[in-house]
Design brief:
By secondary structure, this protein is of the alpha/beta class. The protein is built from 24 helices and 16 strands. The chain has a five-stranded parallel beta sheet, with helices on both faces. A four-stranded mixed beta sheet has the order 3-2-1-4, covered by helices on one side. Strands 11-10-14 form a three-stranded antiparallel beta sheet.
Length: about 675
């Protein structure tokens, strides 16, 4: 049990014991009554009470009952109420017998000083214990670092030190932090030239990109104490605690200089004081004001560096971001292909892998993944290998781990009916077939109709051939057609639709809306920016910057764009129905097929010859294999042909269009008639 929890339990136990003792003292002399109050009144009503006595000190009633040798005792809850209840019976007795009823009253004893003060002393003692506990939690214990959960600064141990070698996929970010490390190692070198190191470094980026790891690496490289705190550590239910903790933190940090103060999730206390972002919290604003004051007041030349991390930079207060506080802002974004490969190498250095493992292929398949995702994939692959009784991790394990992270594990207990299984097969093949028929589409790696734990009944895994940072309008249109290919296949084959395309429709709608409102790819709205992306590092939600009438027009434009792409998907699948049926039948039987198997069936049905493996050929053999002869006797080759310059836009004629024998994909010619008709309609 943590030390802090033990202290809380001890204080609560002591306070509870004091309360129990207090009640025990108050009820020490009170006897236990076995009679009921109405039985006592019945004795008086029936006239069986010969005499009684009341002790005003403890409320004890002693009665002499007719026919009983021993007196009867009862503990009165209220003496005044008892006197009022028995008065009619006593008056009746005295009128009937013309005599006074025998009764005796014992006055209350004068309490001793100790007994009188004991309950008060016990209560005050309990309150004192509670107050001491509250003050220790609130920081009243002499300004010690236990106000931060007793997290005292410790020099970085060599055996556990994190360095830049442990951080992969963030080369540019590490370069910006190298000079910070140099300053922490030798502040005098910079001070001699009049250079001023930044007081604060703000790390911004999506969750899991390694912001905290970078801060630890800076401390590890400089070998200085590292204060790691979360923004929520400053927030308590007691007023003034946050500001007090900020003061104590900077005071202790200056004693340990050079050192690093790292505040994770700084948006918890650094949120803008504007009411738009939830301003109006006096306690949080007081903490923020104290942080601003401390960052202005401390001497940066002593070697105290404040680092902070957040994934919500848009909500931070402007005063916190100005020069002199957080001078340098570093974006720690999702890694690119090289960064993902390097990250995979770092996390797999302690994992035994066989010769089939190709981390570059895994890097291509994990576009958009962050460092934590990649580390999880490596771990899932190692777990899968252990479960299978193998001592090394294979490429198959890694790809399955990618699927587990993306779509979840196979849900083998979910049994689909034959009709549902057939529908899912056509749905997924509809997606895959579009990628083979359209250019600019990412090639298919795997098709499966095995249900997954995240809710999908099947999916198509696509792996890009290269890392891309820009997407053309044609590529986005191709993606829309591909997403709607599943619903189109259902309508073409079964003449009905199912609920299985809900996620596809959601993604297609997001892309279509972004094309119109953010990318300026709409002929109706032109280059207008109609949406602003907020929380780009989290959910990427967008906010419309237009009137309600324009918003309705945007909805109509999105609807027309999706309808156009859906009709194109139906047209492509209807024209290639024989390929759709053949691949769907094969997928129905096998449940999972690879991209290679998919393309083999596609080429077989389309009559396209299999490509020759040129990986082990010489240059001359590759040229000979790639030569194609024209009808006029001329020839051309695809080997060592320089691509056109990016600023050149050569107009391809029909003779220059690739033939089916030159490509793995059947690239349809441009349908100019359809484009002209669409422009005419607009």
């Amino acid at each position: 049990m943590p030390r802090k929890s033990k202290g809380i339990i001890m204080y609560l136990a002591m306070f509870g014991l004091l309360i129990v003792l207090l009640f025990a003292m108050m009820s020490m002399d009170k006897p236990v009554s076995t009679m009921k109050y109405y039985e006592v009144l019945d004795y008086f009503k029936q006239g069986k009470v010969e005499e009684y006595q009341i002790d005003y000190d403890n409320g004890n009633l002693t009665m002499k009952i007719e026919g009983k040798n021993q007196p009867v005792e009862y503990q009165l809850a209220s003496i005044s109420q008892f006197n009022e209840d028995v008065k009619p019976y006593i008056d009746q007795y005295e009128q009937t017998n013309d005599t006074t009823f025998k009764r005796n009253y014992l006055p209350a004893k004068e309490p001793s000083l100790i007994s009188a003060l004991l309950p008060t002393l016990l209560l005050l003692g309990g309150m004192a214990v509670l107050w001491i506990f509250m003050m220790r939690q609130a920081g009243g214990g002499g300004g010690k670092m236990n106000t931060f959960g007793k997290a005292k600064p410790k020099p970085v141990e060599d055996g556990r030190r994190v360095t830049f070698q442990d951080v992969a996929g963030a080369d540019e970010e590490k370069e910006e932090l190298v000079e910070v490390v140099e300053f922490l190692k030798d502040p005098k070198k910079f001070n001699s030239l009049g250079a001023r190191i930044p007081k604060g470094v703000l790390l911004m980026g999506p969750p899991g990109t390694g912001k905290t790891l970078l801060a630890k690496a800076v401390a590890g490289e400089a070998n200085v104490p590292f204060f790691s705190l979360a923004g929520s550590d400053f927030v308590e239910m007691f007023v003034g605690v946050g500001a007090s903790r900020v003061r104590d933190l900077f005071k202790e940090a200056q004693k340990q200089a050079p050192c690093i103060i790292f505040i994770d999730e700084i948006d918890a206390i650094g949120k803008s004081r504007d009411s738009r972002y939830g301003g109006g919290n006096d306690e949080r604003e007081q903490t923020l004001n104290q942080l601003l004051s401390e960052m202005d007041g401390f001497d940066a030349s002593k070697g105290v560096l404040v680092m902070a991390a957040t994934n919500r930079p848009e909500v931070l207060d402007k005063a916190l971001l100005r020069p002199g506080r957080f001078d340098r802002r570093i974006i720690v974004d999702k890694p690119d292909l090289k960064g993902r490969i390097d990250t995979l190498k770092v996390h797999s250095k302690d994992v035994l892998m066989d010769d089939t493992v190709d981390l570059e292929a895994i890097g291509l398949a994990t576009s958009g993944a962050v460092g934590s995702d990649l580390a999880n994939m490596i771990n899932e692959a190692a777990i899968a290998a252990v479960k299978d009784g193998r001592k090394v991790v294979s490429q198959k394990d890694l790809f399955e781990a990618v699927e587990v992270v993306i779509a979840g594990k196979e849900k083998k207990d979910r049994i689909l009916s034959k009709e549902e299984k057939r529908t899912v097969a056509y749905h997924e093949v509809g997606h895959a077939l579009i990628t083979a028929l359209k250019k600019n589409a990412e090639p298919v790696q795997k098709i499966t109709i095995v249900p997954r734990t995240m809710g999908s009944l099947g999916y198509v895994m696509q792996v890009p051939e290269e890392e891309k940072y820009l997407m053309t309008k044609d590529e986005l249109m191709t993606r829309l057609v591909t997403l709607l290919g599943g619903r189109a296949a259902e309508e073409v084959v079964f003449d009905t639709v199912t609920t299985g395309a809900s996620n596809d429709i959601e993604k297609a709608t997001q892309i279509a809306r972004a094309m119109i409102t953010q990318y300026g790819m709409s002929e109706k709205f032109g280059l207008m920016s109609l949406e602003t992306v907020e929380s780009k590092y989290l959910d990427g939600s967008a906010r419309l910057n237009c009137s309600d009438e324009t918003a309705a027009m945007i909805d109509d434009e999105v609807k027309e764009l999706l309808k156009e792409c859906f009709e194109e998907a139906k047209k492509l699948l209807s024209e290639n129905r024989d390929v759709l049926d053949e691949i769907a039948k094969y997928l129905y039987e096998k449940e999972t097929i690879t991209g290679k198997q998919f393309m083999e069936i596609y080429r077989k049905v389309k009559g396209i010859p299999e490509p020759v493996d040129t990986s082990h050929m010489t240059i001359s053999e590759k040229v000979a294999e790639s030569v194609s002869f024209n009808e006029d006797g001329s020839y051309s080759s695809t080997v060592n042909q320089a691509p056109p310059a990016p600023w050149e836009h050569p107009q391809q004629t029909e003779a220059q269009q690739p033939s089916p024998e030159q490509t793995d994909k059947d690239v349809p010619a441009q349908n100019t008639e359809k484009e002209e008709d669409r422009n005419t309609e607009q």
